[in-house]
Write a structure and sequence with these properties.
By secondary structure, the protein is an alpha+beta fold. The protein contains 17 helices and twelve strands. Strand 2 and strand 3 form a beta hairpin. The N and C termini lie far apart (about 60 Å). It holds the Pfam family HD.
Length: about 400
């Protein structure tokens, strides 16, 4: 039997297709990726070969038996061989398919369409691969693959609507609910795995730890975003970081201070000038407000949040509520700058920074304890985030 080959294209931006779909009878537009199927796919039974620019079949559970071997060509980690049937079945499951239609960066695909698109699916598969490369247990790899399964449409935008933007954890309350309403419990039971344990990412130290610790989740989204989206990191630098990254006594740590500092300083740069870019920050606030209004007026329901970006945006755009439409028009064309004196809205995002361990003389020491310059940078960044990001919209009269 020939293996299944899948290309995961985290660098494929929705805008690069050159296609814009206009929602009927509305002036709100939104870029969506056109998915092209391989012509041979319809005639294959236990084999599916996808081209380099084509994601895995999205949104439907495969009716054919799973392949015995899966090769994933990932932009960050390269070619990875998957032989575990449970991983292959989970990757092809419907809930994982939904993640292919959810932007990792919330409103960024609308506010900054020039930035390449990364989906929750890309990141989830990446976390699984990273854990596999560092010899984590199969159970931990499964937990890594499923850790974002309950993200709502537009990811963390929901935390600006009804959650807490400082914690960004609204979706975590729904992990078991989303899993139990799918075929995933059946898949896990088939392979004698405990759903209750796998559903809790915090059960796996290599997968999930609080800031400023390193964990697979934090490492993967840093690599993917810094390299693919914002060009703050090169492929060579990723290799340097990976080659110096080790798991010692169950802790992610570095063998060299220079590699640790490279990652930690670039992490702060990515946070400040990528994730917290004024266009991103304001986009989250505007779209979050539109969702908040629609929910408050019972124009959309909780279940709508668990669709995907395209479905939820279309539903919002067809509402006749004036305040919702005002926010969507603003989202489409706003210009913004940071202004501490005269600002329209202030973003209070979740803090994102790392202070990695370095292995030195059989001890694990924080980078900040070894490098005073980095310690000052880290403290400065924390104060910046705690104060919030005040932003002024500069084109009110053009909208």
């Amino acid at each position: 039997m020939k293996p299944l080959i899948i290309a995961i294209p985290p660098n494929t931006p929705s805008h690069q297709d050159g296609r814009m779909r206009r929602i009927k009878n509305k002036s709100v537009s939104f870029p969506f990726v056109e998915r092209k199927r391989n012509k041979r796919e319809a005639n294959t039974t236990r084999k599916r070969i996808l081209k380099e620019d084509t994601p895995l079949v999205g949104g439907r559970e495969s009716k054919t038996p799973p392949a015995e071997t899966l090769f994933i060509n990932d932009r960050i980690y390269g070619r990875t061989k998957i032989t575990e049937p449970v991983l292959i079945e989970l990757i092809n499951s419907k809930p994982m398919g939904r993640l292919k239609r959810i932007d990792q960066h919330g409103a960024q695909s609308i506010a900054r369409p020039e930035i390449p698109l990364i989906t929750r699916f890309d990141h989830s598969v990446g976390v699984m691969i990273l854990l596999k490369k560092f010899k984590a247990s199969l159970e931990a790899q499964i937990a890594g693959l499923l850790h974002d399964i309950s993200h709502s449409a537009f990811s963390h935008v929901i935390d600006y609507a009804i959650g807490d933007s400082r914690t960004g954890d609204w979706h975590e309350k729904f992990v078991k609910k989303v899993l139990n309403q799918s075929a995933i419990p059946k898949i896990l039971k088939k392979y004698h795995l405990d759903l209750e344990r796998v559903a809790e990412a915090k059960n796996y130290k290599l997968l999930e730890l609080p800031e400023p610790n390193l964990c697979a989740d934090r490492i993967d989204y840093f690599f993917r975003d810094s390299y693919v989206c914002y060009n703050f990191l090169t492929k060579r630098q990723i290799r340097i970081i990976l080659n110096n990254l080790k798991v010692i006594n169950g802790e992610w740590s570095f063998t060299k201070k220079a590699a640790a500092k490279l990652m930690a300083k670039t992490f702060i740069k990515t946070a400040k000038h990528g994730w917290y870019h004024p266009k991103n920050s304001m986009g989250f606030l505007i779209l979050g407000q539109a969702i908040k209004i629609a929910l408050a007026k019972k124009l959309i329901k909780e279940k709508d949040l668990f669709s995907d970006d395209k479905t939820l945006f279309r539903k919002l755009s067809t509402l006749k509520q004036l305040d919702v439409q005002k926010e969507l028009r603003l989202l489409r064309s706003f210009k913004v700058r940071i202004n501490y004196q005269e600002y329209d809205r202030r973003s209070r995002p979740k803090s994102r920074a790392v202070d990695p361990y370095i292995s030195s003389r059989n001890r694990l020491i924080r980078l900040s304890a070894m490098d005073y310059e980095f310690k000052k940078d880290l403290n400065r960044f924390k104060k910046y985030i705690q104060a919030g990001i005040p932003m002024q919209i500069t084109n009110h009269f053009d909208i």
